[in-house]
Amino acid sequence: MEWNFLAAIGRVTLRFMAAVGHLSLFTVETVKHIALPPFYFRIFLRQLMSIGYYSLPVVGMTALFTGMVLALQIYVGSSRFNAESAVATIVVIGLTRELAPVLSGLMIAGRVGAAIAAEIGTMRVTEQIDALVTLSTNPYKYLVAPRVLAGMITLPILVLIADIIGVSGGYLVATESLGFNPSSYIKNTFDFLETRDVVSGLIKSSVFGFIVTLMGCYHGFNSTGGAQGVGRATTNAVVSSFILILISDYFLTVLLLD
Amino acid sequence: MNENSKISLRNVSKSFGHKHVLDGLSLDIAEGESLVVIGGSGTGKSVMLKCILGLLEPDDGEIYIDGQQVVGLTGRKRETALKKTGMLFQYAALFDSLPVWENVAFGLMQAHGMARKEAKDIAIDKLALVGLDADMANRNPSSLSMGMQKRVGLARAIATNPEIIFFDEPTTGLDPIMGDVIDNLIRDCTRQLGATTLTISHDMESAQKIADRIALIYKGSVVWVGPADDIDHCGNAYVEQFVQGNIEGPIELDILKP
């Protein structure tokens, strides 16, 4: 009984280490193909549209309501010790440093990571990836590199837009329903905001863009077993992106704190 | 290795876990020859094809194309070796994200660096060669019937005028009339190109129509190879059982007997 338990732990550990090794090799191969020519510019542009432009509504809505809720909640908390004037500052710092990058990353993982995994997974099970190879085209270069690069570039842009929309949401609630003076709210927003608050959020979001697109490509690329396998790949892509975003967020925050 | 061989396999073995799919398989295909490999499901035909194309790595043995050992080739060297080949997949494996003409012109644009306009003109010529008119060029592959998809797949396989063409179950999933159309197209197109062809098939009628020689694979090795005209009176017990579709004979079936 005890031996079986140890064997089970050993099996899980070995499987985990194998998965980490497999993912590491996939990551190295991806980075290599991003850096080295040829470069599929047309596909890259298509991915910029798909990942960036078409994600604007979902990211915008998320940011707007997060900013609005944040303003309300911070007002409730800060009014307990007469610090209502800090609402604007906390909203903008909370959004730029943390909430806009993380929530946008999670939303993109749900929208884009799942779509990438499903598309590439279907290509795998219908032999389209094999067809690419027989047509002398490297699937890493053609499928993976443009998506990952587009993710790394578009997510910071989306987060910058989310910062603006989120702060606007907070401004709307603060001025329309909490009775803040519009000009003093704007002044408080920008007086204590530093460039590094915004930049740290953008760096985080670029890493999240890398994680989301890489996980989508990795799970899609390695999907097996027909329609069920594609479904599993899609779920795994989203779940692993969520977990990696939250874990990496902590370490990036520590790294970018100063 | 036979010096006149376009493709030569020497003692190729491949296992998946404990299952030996290819077991010391040797086969030679002469330049300009049409060889059809027949055999039951799971006898290693598709694995053999994937090993030649580099989609799978054999555990042992050598594979030569034009005298060049292709096992272990990676990156640019493999892409260069594959430039002289074309492949028609069992279910066509057309790229869903691209219109029909881009599927056909894919190899011309990606592997041979041809301009889009020129590649499109050639794609439309190739589509005409397989009996599809120019109106088809801008349609999405998913809107085509399986017979049409196979014809587009054939146009893609011959688009670059390859020296070697592989066909994986070209008539599977087609009605007898469309199957005959595909057989005729394969025969006419490959003769016109003077290409060497390797076809995998279950369909004896199709095999006899397109083959110069036929090889029978059983349990991962070749048990008979000879001229297509000899197959009905070759005296080989394996061939007779397979051609006549008898349950009794040297070929063991992986089914439980009642």
Q: What does this protein structure show overall?
A:
The complex is a heterodimer of chains A (258) and B (258). Chain A is mostly helical and 258 residues long. Chain A has one domain. Chain A contains nine helices and no strands. Chain A starts with a helix and ends with a helix. Chain B has 258 residues and is an alpha/beta fold. Chain B folds into two domains: 1-76 and 167-241, 3-Layer(aba) Sandwich (Rossmann fold); 85-161, no CATH class. Chain B has helices at residues 45-53, 75-82, 100-110, 116-129, 146-158, 176-193, 204-210, 237-244; strands spanning 5-16, 19-30, 34-38, 60-65, 68-69, 85-88, 164-168, 196-201, 213-218, 221-227. Chain B has a six-stranded mixed β-sheet, with helices on both faces. A four-stranded antiparallel β-sheet of chain B has the order 2-1-4-5, with helices on one face. The relative contact order of chain B is 0.17. Chains A and B meet through helix 4 and helix 5 of A and helix 2, strand 6 and helix 3 of B.
